What does this fold into?
Amino acid sequence: MGLRTEILPAFYQDSVVLMRISAQVRARVSVREVALFMGTPANHALLAQAGLATAAGQAAGPNDLIVTVSADDERVAAEAIGTVKELLAESSRSRETAAEYRPRTLDSALQALPDANLAALSIPGPYVRDEAMAALRRNLHLFIFSDNVPIADEIAMKQEALRRGLLCMGPDQGTAYLGGVGLGFANVVARGRVGCVAASGTGLQAVVSRLDALGEGVSHAIGVGGRDLSEAVGGAMTLFALDALAADPATEGIVLVSKPPHPSVLDRVEARLAAIPKPTVICCVGAKPRSPGKVVWVDTLQQAADAIVAAMAGQRWDSAPLSDAGQVGKCLRSLAGAGCGGRRILGLYTGGTLAYETGHVLRGVFGDDHPHRILDLGDDEYTVGRPHPMIDPRTRGEMIVRAGDDPGIGVLLVDLVLGKGAHASPAAPLAEAVNEARRSARAGGRDIAVLAAVIGTVGDPQGLASQAALLEEAGIATLATNADAARCAAMLVHPPLQAEWMREMA
Amino acid sequence: METKVLPEALRVINVGLESFADDLRADGVPVVQMDWRPPAGGNARLAALLAELDDEA
It folds into this structure.
């Protein structure tokens, strides 16, 4: 048999709950796939794309839950659907016994928390605008995690926020910090002197984690969403956030993190940064650094943290190819036996900006036309029906295992992103997948070198040292910055680079 | 207007993923979790009318 669908009418559940339940069902019942989706137009399209659309499912509306199971026989399918219903009932029961008041409208939420100052939105993209506008009218700042928000909606929300002197952080913003509190995927960092504006989630995580390692903390980190520096949005929230940090007495230095902005927007942003009478650093990963002026330009996320710390101390900051040559040297020695020279790098990333940064480093070394592949597994094409890879390690695990069978791949390069919101122990499934890939490679008479950039802080709930130790035990070399990991990978496949970079650092 | 920017003490209304509310509570942040579902039972036309009403309120 193929697909079996059942609709649960008027049964709205958030996507994380649904993904958790489908993972639990897959672990208990031997089905090929379990898909739990609300019947929104976007989800109907997604199900069709994944080959999981059924005639029965088409009838579901945005408030109805579609349960579709792909199984070998009728009995297994029925068992899976039964398990879904059981787990949903369990989830509702535990919510009810929590006896927490859950208002249905924004106004009743405000009665329960009259001096609320921020609304955090993580609902399907097409619904964001109305909720966001309602929150702005009630003087609430916004943190918008949702993606798939039309750009016209983003522009309208940001204009309204600016008119009211409020922040609109996002849409599609994974991380922010206000008043020492992290929102979304956030590493545990101390309150401190550095203010950040970020059109990137994992880029911000990498910068604040590096700041933490350097003993610095964050005053506020304002995420603006990946499209803020596009021509259409025009840097609206970036410029506003820069002004706010410039006026903030707790902020002594400012870092801007993004992918390359539209040139016209970059000019405006750079002029604004240059006018701020505090040390400022700009890191547009992948953009060619401009000639140094008052604003310090850096090339990588780690350098952004290093440069602002130096600038606040009144010291000169010099760019170097590696941030921790000692650790890179150790990794190179430990992986020397894998015989990677001349083979390819496969980068499997959970962090989009980290993947982008690695691509940028490799292009700088090997030119645009190189054989290496760097994938952002948080991209829509890999997350159909699955949670983000920072939460759910399955997609990456499967790809790592397959890489063990490919004799052309010499280096596997990965990130391990810790912090609130991420998987409880991402090192464990990563180590397991790597062990399996290695077994296949060795059965084929070869080895594969594995390098991980571990992005996290000592305060993170997963435990920075214990997560790194799990990787090291599995023979995975760890580095604290992504640029070092990328350069280490480059040196492994092209050993002449070692002489050049390691000598420069000596 | 200035006092509204960069709040020192967050108080959050969480609309959507409950795990975010849990993380904030663990940080000692007061949070109200809304029981959100698509407005007007998912009827887009009706939802737009409701949003317009709120706009005028």
